Amino acid sequence: MKDVNLLPNHVAIIMDGNGRWAMERGYNRSRGHLEGSKTLEKLGIYILNKGIKVLSVFAFSTENFKRDPNEVNYLMNLFIEMFTKKYKIFKKENIKVVFSGRTKNLRPDVLQAIDKMREETKNNTRGILNICLNYGGQEELIDASKKIAMAYKEGTLDLNELNKESFYKYLYQDLPPIDLLIRTSGEYRISNFMLYQMAYSEMFFPNIYFPDFKEVEFDQILDEFYKRNRRFGGN
Ligand code: FPP
């Protein structure tokens, strides 16, 4: 058995390859998102049940609004379906679901579904699922800078108290730094995902589409993670 202290605190996943998974099977892209949502539900519960405290997932980027409106609509409806129906499962599993991203541009029914999921799970304590939706890493840093400027202007922030740790309070969620980042589908980019939080994360880019990324594939990466020697800039 692995020493539980060696577990990563915070795992982040860029869930890439849903579209290609579907196209290669002769389905439309939306079918890939549906399969991806099933993978996320099972994998999320599995990861947080292992004792990993936080799982962040990239569900929709600020740039994803540029996609075909039919695909955007499908995804928004899928989010509503998941947040309004599946909250019971997350409640039962004692998982707290939080959201990161801008609310601007999101449909009122999507915002309501987000509220429902958040409210229903807010007292849960086993682990946190952070769903990044209408999210951009640079946007998060801009929004944090604005919050900092406001706090300074209002006199609630002493600039001497702003440091690498306290900066987290101004991000969308005050979560620990990311230890392990996974991007599926064989693409080697971080695509504007949690830029501040991943400063020292170990990165893995498995050559597999997200709908096929299951518990066994996650465990293989975890084994590799244990072997890496994390130095945090020291020697
Ligand atoms: C990227 O794959 C994936 C997305 C833009 C959507 C991710 C959404 C899900 C996994 C759905 C479930 C999420 C929740 C929170 C219910 P892509 O479509 O860009 O794939 P491609 O690169 O092969 O085209």
How would you characterize this protein structure?
The protein has helices spanning 18-23, 29-49, 69-85, 87-92, 108-121, 137-153, 215-227; strands at residues 10-14, 54-61, 95-100, 127-135, 180-183, 202-204. The protein is of the alpha/beta class and 235 residues long. It has a single domain (10-136, 178-224), classed as Decaprenyl diphosphate synthase-like (Undecaprenyl pyrophosphate synthetase), CATH 3.40.1180.10. The chain has a six-stranded parallel sheet with strand order 3-4-2-1-5-6. β3 (95-100), α5 (108-121) and β4 form a beta-alpha-beta unit. The structure holds farnesyl diphosphate. The site of farnesyl diphosphate has 18 residues, from α1, α2 and α3. Farnesyl diphosphate binds next to α1, α2 and α3.
Condensed summary:
With 235 residues, the protein is an alpha/beta fold. It contains seven helices and six strands, in the order βααβααβαβαββα.
Question: Helix content range of the residues, please?
Answer: 40-55%
The CATH superfamily name is: Decaprenyl diphosphate synthase-like
**CATH class call:** Alpha Beta
In the CATH scheme, what's the topology name? Undecaprenyl pyrophosphate synthetase
Share in β-strands: 5-15%
Number of domains: 1
Quaternary structure: single chain
The small-molecule ligands in this entry are: farnesyl diphosphate
Distance N terminus to C terminus? Answer: 28 Å
Q: Can you count the helices?
A: 7
CATH-derived architecture: 3-Layer(aba) Sandwich
